Amino acid sequence: MTPPMSLFAHARATLALGLPLIGSSLGQMALHVVDTVMVGWYGVIALAALVLGSSSFFIMFVLGSGFAKAVMPLAAHARARGDDAELRRSARMGLWLSALFGALIYPVFWWSEAILLALQQKPEVASAVQEYLRVAGAGMVPALAVAVLQSWLSALGRTQMVLWVTLAAVGVNIGFNWLLIFGNAGFPEWGVRGSAVATLAVQIFTLALLAAYAGLLPALRPYRLFRRFWRLDRPALAEVFRLGWPIGLTGLAEGGLFEASAIMMGWIGAVELAAHGIALEAAAIAFMIHVGLSSAATIRVAGFQGTGDARALRDGALVAWGLSVVVAVVVVVLFLVFPRQIVGLFLDRSNPESAAILDFGVTLLFMAAMFQLVDSMQAMALGLLRGLQDTRTPMWFAAISYWVIGIPCSYVLAFQLDLGGVGLWAGLVIGLACAGASLMLRFWLLAPKPGVTGEAAL
Questions:
Q1: Which of 47, 161, 273, 291 is 20 to 30 A (C-alpha) from 391?
Q2: How far apart are CA 456 and CA 458, in angstroms?
Q3: What would you measure as the largest C-alpha separation in the chain, in angstroms?
């Protein structure tokens, strides 16, 4: 009988998977930062168009990426059971569903100007956003296909390749932006449209690299991922769809929580909204670490579920959660000890409004420190539950926590009790805490127990 893994061995295995995924998540964020900075150098209207256009694209991407995220536990589970056929079937149908979603959503991007005008955006901004989305929107299919291949390769333990390709994409993005936004080296000066072309080029470049790696690497060639790719596999399609659509809606609910908080903060004032954006950006960087660890936890839990090793599953989950808590504690310390330095990184001190933004940003960073533990808990719990292929009930838990509890609490505390931006963020803390506690409790109740046959159920 094989002796059980030690907790140290679990930690080492989780970090071996998770560290490259953390780097990849930060790299994806770097792509957004590069676009924002370089278009910001070009002009105000272009920057406004990029902010609206990229956020619109991202919301739709989050919704469609549920199918890609569903591939990860399915592939990890199949790999643990030695089922190579199932391993490739889930990835293929994940690619099918991603392509279908991208095609269906593209008309929204094509006619986005009319939608934005109906939402009372300025005509010149709405026109620029449509120009951006007509190009960048064509990248939805390759972007989602990249997400599927990243999930599949991660489930096979090939997370380092995912990281290196993401870092290469950041370099390609900088190069194309420099050429096409500003018209350098004889290229046309396209402004925000140039950024859209750069984004599309990066997505195609990334997809080509990952597809070539997945299809041609000798170690991966036996899986025959793209062989008879055109053949419909109804059972696999249904399984990926069943797991994927709740994941997409869960991500949409969480993203919508922060979008709604930005709208409400805008009601309070421009200074407060600027500070809110800075504090959220700092929190988002920390959150990328939890996303990477959560994905690693998904893969490991799905693998132990596939082999029927209940003790390793629970021990591995506990260790992954513990690592996430350690990261959260470190971030809390940084936010509490160096708040002015962190907020100051995002500000031009020569701007007369910077002092007020800095002061309020420091206050919000203290609030961000408060929700680090609960935010890390909800991210990790979602990853663990996906490892058990449980996505529908967590969707409801998250939606209720964010929209029935979190947003109303933010509104009441901010506007009815006159606590302003601090009250708004306190509501976010409450919503995230409800999500974290309920989701983590569900995982420990569902996780199979050593020596107990069958699966626990709520």
A1: 161
A2: 7
A3: 70
Q: Given this model, what pLDDT does residue 277 score?
A: 79
Q: Which of 204, 236, 299, 230 is nearest to 88 (CA)?
A: 236
Identity at 321, one-letter amino acid code: W
* 278 vs 343: CA distance, rounded Å: 7
Handedness of CA 190, 191, 192, 196 (dihedral sign): positive
d(CA 437, CA 452): 25
Amino acid identity, residue 431? Answer: G
DSSP 418: -
Decide: 38 and 190 in contact? Cβ < 8 Å. Answer: no
For residue 232 the two structure tokens come to 């419909």
Host H or E run for residue 319 = helix 310-337
Cβ neighbour number for residue 437 with a 10 Å cutoff: 16
pTM: 0.88
Which tens digits make up the pLDDT trace of 97-140? 999 999 999 999 999 899 888 877 778 888 888 999 999 999 99
Residue 457 has pLDDT above 60, yes or no: no
Check the CA dihedral 150-152-154-159 and report its sign: negative
Q: State the pLDDT confidence band at 455, using cuts at 50, 70 and 90.
A: very low
